[in-house]
Design brief:
Elements (H helix, E strand, L loop, with lengths): L5 E7 L5 E13 L2 E6 L4 E4 L5 E2 L4 E5 L5 E6 L5 E8 L3 E4 L2 E14 L4 E4 L1 H11 L3 H19 L8 H9 L1
Parallel strand pairs: 1-10
Antiparallel strand pairs: 1-2, 2-3, 2-4, 3-6, 4-5, 6-7, 7-8, 8-10, 9-10, 10-11
Length: 169
């Protein structure tokens, strides 16, 4: 697939129900994975609801085998980087990638503050959906990695993403 092809990014819950989806442009690949982008005004859809326009440009890194995805936001979004802990991405077709959202998130605000989010939701959904021991272990390992990486000078969370974000501004 060449760069700038449309790709549908689909987030599902552990039971298979739709969570988020968004059409994005495939910007390219590097050692970190596949980069997808959307300009300000792009539509994001939550579940089966009608989509809404996002008022800032953003890029999403889909790692080849990580248990997370990372969204890098342009201003005016106060969250600079938002990482969803997920199952490893599965490319269902050249124009569709899907992940299972495992509730936990790690974000870095533009102030530099890093925080882990939705730990209560993870506990509730672990019981509700019956997350396996391996899924729990991988999710918690992903949180530990992301928390440390977002606090340090670790790529792709330091500088590498700026190149990709500039392409969708």
């Amino acid at each position: 697939m060449s760069g700038d092809d449309e790709v549908r990014l689909v987030f599902r819950k552990y039971d298979g129900s739709p969570h988020w989806s968004s059409p994005m442009r495939r910007l390219g690949e590097d050692e970190h994975g596949v980069w997808l982008g959307a300009p300000a005004g792009a539509i994001a859809r939550r579940g089966r609801a009608t989509g809404r326009a996002v008022d800032y440009a953003h890029v999403v890194l889909v790692p080849r085998d990580g248990w997370w995805t990372a969204t890098f936001n342009d201003v005016p979004k106060p969250t600079e980087i938002y990482c969803d802990v997920t199952t490893p991405p599965r490319w269902l077709a050249p124009d569709e990638v899907t992940v299972v959202d495992l509730d936990l998130d790690v974000r870095r605000r533009r102030t530099g503050e890093v925080e882990v989010l939705d730990e209560d939701e993870f506990v509730a959904h672990r019981a509700r959906y019956g997350y396996t021991g391996d899924v729990v272990e991988q999710a918690l390992a992903a949180v530990a990695y992301l928390d440390k990486a977002l606090r340090g000078d670790v790529e792709p969370f330091s500088r590498d993403y700026h190149h990709w974000l500039a392409r969708v501004r």
